[in-house]
Batch of 4 targets.
Target 1
Amino acid sequence: MTTAVRVRGLTKRYGDVQAVGGIDLDINAGEVFAILGPNGAGKSTTVEIMEGYRTRDAGEVSVLGIDPGRPTREWRSRIGVVLQTADDVAEATVRETVRQFAGYYPNAKDPDEVIEQVGLTDKAGTRIRRLSGGQRRRVDVALGVIGGPDLLFLDEPTTGFDPEARRQFWRLIESMAHQGTTIVLTTHYLDEAEALADRVAVVSGGRIVAEGDPATLGGRATAKARVGWAEEGGHRSHETDTPTRTVLELAGRFDGEVPELTVTRPSLEDVYLQLIETPS
Ligand SMILES: Nc1ncnc2c1ncn2[C@@H]1O[C@H](COP(=O)(O)OP(=O)(O)OP(=O)(O)O)[C@@H](O)[C@H]1O
């Protein structure tokens, strides 16, 4: 498997603040990798160093085989970054802006197709300054993907999106991943990480405190299950390592359907909150 991003011993300090305190990361080509962590954990700093927009104090970083501290023009054209749209495009329409950016890349995607994928076809002729915050963010995403990048960085991409726009954005990311684009995203939405990411890293206090498949992170898949049901006008629940046996016993007791039956294991959010409370 080819490695798209390799980071070893990355550190970055701002005055007294150790923003990144020794991060090691390997992100495979074609993978969707999510970086999670509380405010101030060091996510943006790490991602901006990988994008070549911030200098590092120490450590090795290789992104598509290049040190982002010494970027080449060819390398830049293979990297997609979602930035806040600059104010100087605010007078231009969505279509004009996306077409203009398409002109900067050798392998740009079709502007109208990208506008459709971010759900802005109805607004293609609208000036950017007349868009809502969430619509404007969708323009940012369109500009990040228009170049047909091999590696796409998304820093909190869906902040300000309504639920429908988020789902539409997820489909765009899934289709880009399906076509082989490597995607690195930071997000505060755990459902987003769970829906999109092959692997996640949880960053806390400038270090990685857990890393893995979101379905099994922190022992989620093998943690005790909670079986819940309704009985005698109240809600009952039981924590167990053998939920199937509990359900069978209940089915026998109720002679068929168990009222309001649920079987749950810790959510990604439960595991995440535990991880950031007790950084190792
Ligand atoms: N330019 C800067 N100058 C000084 N301190 C900074 C600078 N940028 C970030 N920091 C500090 O470094 C730490 C890490 O910040 P960073 O933006 O990387 O966190 P983050 O995980 O992306 O947070 P958020 O979820 O809030 O975006 C924070 O304590 C922040 O205050």
Target 2
Amino acid sequence: MNSLRSVDDHLAGILNTVRTLAPLEVELEQALGTTLAEEVTSPVALPPFDNSAMDGYAVRAEDVAAVPVTLPVIDDVPAGDDRLQAIGPGMVMRIMTGAPLPAGADAVIPVEWTDAGTAQVVVGRSAAPGHAIRRAGEDVRAGDVVLPAGTPIGPAQLGVLAGVGRRRVLVRPRPRVVIISTGAELVEPGMPLGPGQIWESNSYALLAAVREAGGEGYRAGIVSDDAAGFLDQLDAQLVRADLVITSGGVSMGAYEPVKEALGPLGTVRFDRVAMQPGMPQGFGVVGEDHIPLFALPGNPVSSFVSFMLFVRPALRKMRGLPAGPTPTVRAVTAAPLRSPQGKRSFLRGVLAPDGTVEPVRRQGSHQLAALASANALIVVPEDVTELPEGANVEVIPL
Ligand SMILES: Nc1nc2c(c(=O)[nH]1)N[C@H]1C(S)=C(S)[C@@H](COP(=O)(O)OP(=O)(O)OC[C@H]3O[C@@H](n4cnc5c(N)ncnc54)[C@H](O)[C@@H]3O)O[C@H]1N2
Ligand code: MOO
Ligand SMILES: [Mg+2]
């Protein structure tokens, strides 16, 4: 019997091995979910020119100091107007939101404060200089850093990239993750089940978890319990993988294709990790390019929990984001709970808005529906075997 390896050692080994992906230039449309690999500055000020914040009239504030007052409207300034006109004393121009402020004007009167006249306008309310004007450079000055390297690119970041005129951007791409399920009993969902068979579910859960963690997942289908067939499939898939996840075939059975195929390579280490669920699993590198490979256990809850604890941090590192143990939040137990001695357990629980967490009733590592009824993993340390109701715990929100 080999001894157990701690969760922390296993994660440290993973994070020491996994490398951040090389930067790649992509079109803006491909940048969502990637991480910025360059510092982005703005070539121009934003806004680039003084402009109106409202639809109304560009005025000299002193001309509307005493109201009501009737003034001639000498022209219109629509957004995009490039005539660079000026107004003189006692004149106004009709102006639209985003249109450049005419020289000579120092305030904008919203149309709601007027009779909306077109040849002349009655202004019913005065405004201080600067009213409803957006100044050049108020958001960004020319040369300002708008996004530092290392920023995860979400919708707002994409918007600002376009807003400073970028078409292409240097990023850490989304890692490409190939998922291979092993097991002679597995059948694709939608196909009829024969005796002894079950529908394959791990690759679907793992694919979704990969996407949520910022990767691009590919299901490479099901491989039967045959080490040679597994190696063939792995070889065929490596060309499109930055990372490989396998599920099943890593424990003590007579037909464990992943362990059988990868064990002899010497580059993938199989361990019994001191955790529940997820004890038997492997990690290492494969192929000429040393692609990281996670050999996750087949039990559905075990593979999911192992993903959260080990694959997610690895994906963060590959994406160029700060990587460490999966973050937890504090909660208080709403019921007593039990946990095995010597293993860190990750009980499936329901975290309530009041900060209490209750373990779900079924905690088996095959009980996928029970996992689906939970929204948190309750972390119970290795040396704790029982906790009363009302105890402080850390939980991983799902
Ligand atoms: N004698 C021992 N037996 C087992 C041990 C042990 O220490 N000694 N460990 C148990 C633990 S803990 C786990 S976890 C599992 C790990 O099993 P494997 O990784 O070898 O996976 P399989 O044997 O292929 O399958 C286990 C279980 O999961 C189901 N499965 C597998 N793949 C899928 C999939 N893609 N979709 C849905 N369900 C899947 C499979 O049918 C089995 O029921 O080993 C224990 N045994
Ligand atoms: O450790 Mo296994 O992953 O519980 O069922
Ligand atoms: Mg097995």
Target 3
Amino acid sequence: MVRFEGVSMRYGRAPETLKDISFSLRQGSFHFLTGASGAGKSSLLKLIYLAHRASRGRVELFGRDISLLHAQDLPFVRRRIGVVFQEFRLLDHLSVFDNAALPLRILKRKPATYREDVAELLTWVGLGDRMHALPATLSGGEKQRLAIARAVVDRPDILLADEPTGNVDPAMSLRLLRLFVELNRLGTTVLIATHDEDMVARAGRPALRLHDGRLLGAEATP
Ligand SMILES: Nc1ncnc2c1ncn2[C@@H]1O[C@H](COP(=O)(O)OP(=O)(O)OP(=O)(O)O)[C@@H](O)[C@H]1O
């Protein structure tokens, strides 16, 4: 699903943020990505969701070297990847329901085909009674849960989540973890960047550990 071979990346002319990273994520696997603030977790996710290019090495997605993808292929590849951004990136003028349904709206699916599923998903993340609200009226934790609902609504092949439980209480964190586990059980490859070592321990899943832009440890390659 995802394969990095000797990958480095830098922002502009700055020194390398990620250095010589190699790992692979098999289809259907579930990993955490841990490391101190600034270790490079978000940067590594950016390489996978094609928001940034490697400065060295090779990144493969779905068995294809991404440097060989044509520009017109990029939207199709991106569509297979659900992303929970650290800063949510919700659309302020759309309701909670329409934000959650956004990937389906972009695909021009008919609302009648997804209305119930989206409502059920929003209920699952505890937003069943906020479906008609605007994002500006939500708490930080509610925004985070909406961002998660939007990322998983179209059952992506890969789910990337950047600190997805940073703003919620332990009970909701557990509930969201169960949502990720359930999605993974249905076949989605999951990679969650987090500081939450308790969640990592509880989940009993392998972790890729970043330190100062380098990947540590034998756990890194499943
Ligand atoms: N857009 C950018 N331009 C320049 N430098 C950046 C940019 N984004 C991140 N960096 C730098 O890259 C390094 C890694 O940042 P990154 O956000 O990937 O770390 P992180 O492990 O996700 O941190 P956190 O847990 O605080 O989110 C940091 O030194 C950061 O300042």
Target 4
Amino acid sequence: MSMLRNMTADNPRSLIKPIFYTTVANLAGVIPFIWLVEAARLIFTPFVHPDLPLDTARLWWVCAGLAVSLVLLFGCEILASRSQFRDAYSAAADGRSRLAEHLRKLSLGYLNKRDPGDLANMMMGDFAMLEHGISHLVPQMIGAAVMAVLALIGLSFFDWRLALSLFAALPAAILLMLLTSGIQRKLSSRHMRAKIDAGNRLQEYLNGIRVIKAYNLTGERFVRLERSFRELMRQSVRLEGVLGPIGLSATVCVRAGLTLMVMAGVHLLLGGSLDVITFVAFLIIGTRIFDPLTAALSGYAELRYIEQAGERIVQLLREPVMPGERQPPAGHDVELKRVTFGYLDQSVLRDVSVSMPAGSFTALVGPSGSGKSTVLRLIARFYDPEKGTVTIGGEDIRDMDPEALLRKVSMVFQDVYLFQDTIAGNIRFGRSDATREEIEEAARLACCHDFIMKLPQGYDTMVGEGGCTLSGGEKQRISIARAMLKNAPIVLLDEATASLDPENEAEIQQAIDRLVQGRTVIVVAHRLKTVQHADRIVVLDHGRIVEQGRYDELLSSNGLYARLWRRQHATARGE
Ligand SMILES: Nc1ncnc2c1ncn2[C@@H]1O[C@H](COP(=O)(O)OP(=O)(O)OP(=O)(O)O)[C@@H](O)[C@H]1O
């Protein structure tokens, strides 16, 4: 059962219809042979019993029956293949959506540990394998097993000795497959790992193609990619080299049943305990009966391989999502109480406590790597703290539904990601039901309307994946427009560090000033000048708060902030 669960990404019901129709089609495939057997009996009867004439009228009926059964078989095959494909593709599509939805609900802490290439491969490659399993392999195997049992019972009515000899070698073939299933699994798993690794390296290579071109990275830089391709080739050869002969031996074993049946038939015929007609009937059926069985046996190894792909998907689907069901309260004040947090085993924030009243403007400043952006990520609940609590409206955000919480929060990050969509579509991510007028209004407020109108198709211009067709400043303003449209009461802003030209900088500042009006705002600031007027400036150093207060208070206390301020001023004056 666990195999079927894995094979179907935890949705074994998707197999019911394909198995049913395949079994019906397999059974329908036997009917023409029953007519053939009857035709053979009629034709041979005058030879065996010369006193009986050829029953031509009955023979015509048999021919008609054969023709009808072939039409029936055709209809059943069509139904089976339609059901197999429709159900397999819709099960895979549902599974992909379920997995994508699940990924969204997992903590970033978990996702950071996974390779993005691996996840992409799972979404496309592994599900494609499940499609093949659901549409072909599983129905084929179960249909073949059902047919073998029915055929054994049915043929036993004619002659149980020949029926038994026909299937005598089948247990040996099944045993061979079961005994080698450990090695099949091991080789499949090695091959799967090599395939995932090659996929990851390829993804890494494609993602970094600009850096590779820019730095003319050749030779040894490709070694990792090449090595992974070579390993994949080695594992593929090993897999085929071992599984091929195993499958072939199983097929030979099954087909040996026909030889056994012929030997038994000749022996019984000579002994006088079998009539020629029954023997001929078994010869005809014997040539057809093994086709589904051998196809099923040779598909077994592939099934084990696919099962592993399914197992990876099921494991990921069972990964616990971030807990919390409560709706956030009405208040918009944000507080961190004695928060300690680290990524993997690196400690980043230590015992951080800070209170940000509703409607206030708080700036987080400090040296690079001091943990400023991490504070924003904890407030948005991308991660949960190891110790301490983050509260919004006085309630622990760990108890809140993460999606409901995110509806209260707008975020503008340094590394703006734009989707491969139109400009309007990208802004609409702020609020999916926004009208075109609302999108344009948000764009005006975010100072991007003018540059958008200069693009070839204005708001309908497609943006390359990741926003690679726009400048850094333009992307930042589009992400501010998204936040404008979302109109959430809490704004988290990670100021761009990339050096922007003065015009861009002024426009972004103007856009930000509009965005933050009347909201609880927490800004990570790299340029201290931009947050001089903040209600409170929090200075972080090595994950601890070392100072907090207003601009003039911090300057007069002559601590880290004052030093950072003087350094930035000296740089600005070119000293
Ligand atoms: N996803 C992550 N996984 C592992 N470590 C991370 C991750 N994000 C950040 N870090 C590390 O955590 C530390 C704090 O990062 P953070 O981005 O919060 O600093 P920051 O003060 O905002 O830095 P900057 O001013 O350079 O943006 C850094 O040492 C960084 O390398």
